[in-house]
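Usage example:
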Amino acid sequence: MQTLADVGEKAAVAAILGRLKSSTAVGPGDDAAAIEVGGRYVVASTDIVSRLAHLPGAMAPRDIGWFVAAVNLSDVAAMGARPLGVLLSFCLPRDYLLRDLEAIMEGAQECALSVGTEILGGDTKEGRELVIAGTALGEVGKERVLLRRGARKGDLLAVTGTMGLASAGFAAVTNGINAPEAADAFMRPRPRIREGMALSASGAATSAMDVTDGLAYSVHELSRQSGVHFIVDWEAIPVRPEVLRIAMAVDGSVEDMVLHYGGDYELLFTIRPDMLDAVKGALGDEFSVIGRAEGSENVLMRGGQVSQLESRGYEHFMR
Amino acid sequence: MQTLADVGEKAAVAAILGRLKSSTAVGPGDDAAAIEVGGRYVVASTDIVSRLAHLPGAMAPRDIGWFVAAVNLSDVAAMGARPLGVLLSFCLPRDYLLRDLEAIMEGAQECALSVGTEILGGDTKEGRELVIAGTALGEVGKERVLLRRGARKGDLLAVTGTMGLASAGFAAVTNGINAPEAADAFMRPRPRIREGMALSASGAATSAMDVTDGLAYSVHELSRQSGVHFIVDWEAIPVRPEVLRIAMAVDGSVEDMVLHYGGDYELLFTIRPDMLDAVKGALGDEFSVIGRAEGSENVLMRGGQVSQLESRGYEHFMR
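Running the assembly step on the lines above writes:
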């Protein structure tokens, strides 16, 4: 019989969510579910992290708290929603220090406050290892919600921030390289709430998601859900020099860090080409156009050469 | 330094939630948080279960799914809210069978459908043991929300269903006693959504909570939050004969099963004495008056004798 290690995380999620016949406006498969309440959408998303899968020893309890709140709020940002709050539940070993649990909560609250929201409540139970599940809630006007589907041929493809800094930070932390900015990008991602809300208000975005599992995987996901394909321009992808320095130091691949590893929690979105100025008005310099919806497969253009964009990204259970 | 085993679950939750300065209408400390959206309250509650702490080997994956959905929906019921959906996130060992994960989802969906709602989405990640976190969402009119605070002197104290059957079921399952009805009460608690909504609509309830951690603990909790005390009439507490039979078979205490162990997920609530008929109209025979708010401490009346009602209930981390 098949185990999760045989099929991988994404197939496992697809198998369980595929069985749900959801009647909600936006059901399983987007960054968050959306439910109509009082004429608006309430969006809700859940993410779970375990010490084994996500939390290297270098992360202090306060960082862990920030991280868990951030990855959950990032899904609210990807829907263009205003955050309403975060719920956290913990499984903890019985010898866990109360002081460390308090520090996790402080880090989570710090992240929530940084985007104008707060921790609403939680639950703690005993378990063999530290596991933290978060749920973030938000609200957005029904006609303003940003979904993974909706990109059209000719739309521009864009990202907020830069790519690869979080995975460079992970490489730096695990290899003992001093790179505080990159380490911070990995351990304390900033949920792009302000940018998501501004994009939603601009009316210029046709689709959006957050880049949890790497840029390439996310481009393929927008492609699948919208039914269009993308040309991605390698030279246009914003990458900090720090990423090159760390990649060289650990003998790693810049391309893998930028395209195939996750953790940046930036927003990937498409915009109507005639609305580029509206997006500039909304986001300022905080985004880059990196491609366009055209053609019949997802490709990477680099140094004048065109190659297939591999869809591989970070997958739990498989190694 | 203090560990969670030193302070216990309730002190740990109090320590972390006490640090939150929440601006929401109903923040940490009630069954669910409540946030205003479009003039109504959205309520949200999270509960986490682990194989270690909650899920005896006798529970099949389908039962586990039902159980997790039920304990989360029970909190929505306790607020008098209409359920909007449930999110589930999983930590799973990599050798976990895909078939078993699918069965968990089916059980959860079955429970959600039984109260007119559904599973909205989820997340899976790798962990050392099975951990499932759920979040249930609901909505209720602002003036109709049921809170733990609000009971007044003279109010009647009441419960839905019967007490002790779930803990008797746990005792039966772990001791190999054939008691299908009790086992079902333990493994497949029914979230009292219909009853919570009817109570809310009746306008007769002054406070409410669900009986997760035992009747005695719950009475003390309503007492603390409302600032009144209760006389509980032992003879009026509805107990099925099955509980007596199982308690005798395992040489256990009926009083502990009825008062101090949890798992019944019934609603404990207070009603204005002049509104008893309205509650009968709303709930029919599905509830029992078991006491009254009066006096200056929480007491148990039994065979004409009055004794202190111990506040001990189920506590994680402590043994």
